[in-house]
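Progress against Task 2.4 (sequence-to-structure conversion) is shown through the following example record, which the project officer requested during the mid-term review.
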Amino acid sequence: MRNAVWLFVAAFSTSAVGFDGQPLYYEIDWGPVTLADVRVELLDSEGVSSVTADIESRGAGAWFSNFRSTLEILYTRDGTKLLNADSVWGDTLSNITVVWPASGSLPTVDLYRSEPRDYELTAVSEESTKNTVDPFTPVFEIGRMLENTEKCVGFYRIFDGVRRYDLNIRDGGLHMLETNVPNNFGGSTRRCDITVTRIGGFSTKKSWFRMSESDIDRTLYLGKIRGFWLPVKFEISAPLGKAVARLIDKNQNHKHQSK
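Structure tokens generated for the chain above:
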């Protein structure tokens, strides 16, 4: 279940961006049940960009595996990139720091876990981490691209310190998103179809979120909010079901509940 949530975070990293630092709230559901809440802040100001993302299990997600994670990424003026993440999965604590030097040399990784993994990961070679970017670099690049070309396209070599994968983003055209829920986004969106190629760092254990990538469809919808292209809905479809993440308006939700 926790890997399902991180797949959503990776998917949001292939979307567009609100540069104003205002929080974005998402709810992740699997069918009729809720898995987690996500809070994201994206800022680009005076040559310094940053990302913070807070993820917490809720509902069925907490019942399966209680977890809480915080991700921070900083892009400095000299070109250095820093990723830091703290996570709690049940009784396990972990912290990872990844630094991409401005010189362009290989990223360095400092990883701590309070307990060893009870599963094996596929290998990540040092060579495969060359010319990689953090999971949120596409956020800023695709956001600017949509403003200029109105196309959602891109290819990225992603490394988060553990997982190494390639993202291929294809434009799916305009799509009208309809909703009957007051706090969900409705209106014109840009559809992006996402393909993931796993290079290394993924569990070798069997589960429906670790099946062949050819069995998984990922579709992202971007809407314009506050003048920026933002992810408003993301779907992961697999043979055993569909998980959906939706941008929610907490103010609208509060008004709805107070009636």
